Amino acid sequence: SQQGEEDPQALSIQEGENATMNCSYKTSINNLQWYRQNSGRGLVHLILIRSNEREKHSGRLRVTLDTSKKSSSLLITASRAADTASYFCATPYYNTDKLIFGTGTRLQVFP
Amino acid sequence: DTAVSQTPKYLVTQMGNDKSIKCEQNLGHDTMYWYKQDSKKFLKIMFSYNNKELIINETVPNRFSPKSPDKAHLNLHINSLELGDSAVYFCASTKEESLAQYFGPGTRLTVL
C-alpha cells in the first residue's frame, strides 16, 4: 500500500498540553502537507513543508520533516478543546498532484 | 461564499440505483478531485480533472463516472450502486502553484 502511517492512532490530552503526531511515508517527495478534519466535515489544509525545509511554524503549529527517515511530525502547542479533530499528513505521489494521505491521528483535547 | 460546495450532503439509496453528487468551486482553481473516505477514515483519491480533462483515474469501478462541464464543476455519477459504495465522498480543488487542496464538506452516501 502506498498509504503513509500516522502515530499514534489516537491521542487524548488536557487543554494547555502539547500534542505531537508523527507521520511516516514511503516515496520520495517534494513537499508534505498536514490537514485537519473536524467530525463530519471536510479536510482543512494546515501547513505545507517543502523537502528542502527541516522545520516550519504557523501559529501554534510546528512541523518538522526528516527526508532521510521519510518522516514528519506535527506539534500543536498549548492545545485547546477546539483542536479536537483528526489530523492527516499527505504526500504527493512521485511529485504529481495525487496526494497520498496517512491513516490519521484522532486528537481529543479535554477542557 | 462557500469555497468548495457539494450537494447533497446526505444520500441514502437502494442497491442498484444510479445517483449523482455535484461539486462546485468558486476559487478559480484549475484542478478538481474526488476522494472516497471509508468507515475507517482512510482517504483515497478517485479522480482528478485539470481544466475539464481527466488526469488521474485510479482503480475505480467503471460504474463511477466523473463529468466536468466546466472548470468550476466536477460531478460524480455512480451507476448500479453497491453496498460497498457506502462512504463519504469529498470533492477538492487546487491551484497548481499553491499545492494545498481545498475540500468540500463531503457527501455521506449510504447504500441499503
Characteristics of this structure?
heterodimer; A: 111 residues; mainly beta; six-stranded mixed sheet; five-stranded antiparallel sheet; 0% helix; globular; B: 112 residues; seven-stranded mixed sheet; four-stranded antiparallel sheet
Give your account of this protein's structure.
The complex is a heterodimer of chains A (111) and B (112). Chain A is an all-beta fold and 111 residues long. In chain A, 0% of the residues lie in helices and 56% in strands. The mean pLDDT of chain A is 93. Chain B is an all-beta fold and 112 residues long. Helices cover 0% and strands 56% of the residues of chain B. Chain B contains no helices and 11 strands. In chain B, a hairpin with a 7-residue loop joins strand 9 and strand 10. At the A-B interface, strand 4, strand 5 and strand 9 of A face strand 5, strand 9 and strand 10 of B.
The oligomeric status of these chains comes to heterodimer
Structural class of chain A: mainly beta
Helix content of chain B: under 10%
Radius of gyration of chain B: 13 Å
Give the DSSP E fraction of chain A (strand runs of 2 or more residues). over 45%
Give the averaged pLDDT of chain B, no decimals: 91
Report the major sheet of chain A: 6 strands, mixed
Bulk shape of chain A: globular
The biggest sheet of chain B amounts to: 7 strands, mixed
Topology:
The complex is a heterodimer of chains A (111) and B (112).
Chain A (H helix, E strand, L loop, with lengths): L4 E3 L2 E5 L4 E6 L6 E7 L5 E8 L4 E4 L2 E6 L4 E6 L8 E8 L6 E3 L3 E6 L1
Chain B lengths: L3 E4 L2 E4 L5 E7 L5 E7 L5 E8 L2 E5 L6 E7 L2 E6 L8 E8 L7 E2 L3 E5 L1
Parallel strand pairs in B: 2-11
Antiparallel strand pairs in B: 1-3, 3-8, 4-5, 4-9, 5-6, 7-8, 9-10, 9-11
Structure in a nutshell:
Chain A is mainly beta and 111 residues long. Chain A is 0% helix and 56% strand. In chain A, strands 2, 4, 5, 9, 10 and 11 form a six-stranded mixed sheet that branches. In chain A, strands 1-3-8-7-6 form a five-stranded antiparallel sheet, with no helix packed on it.
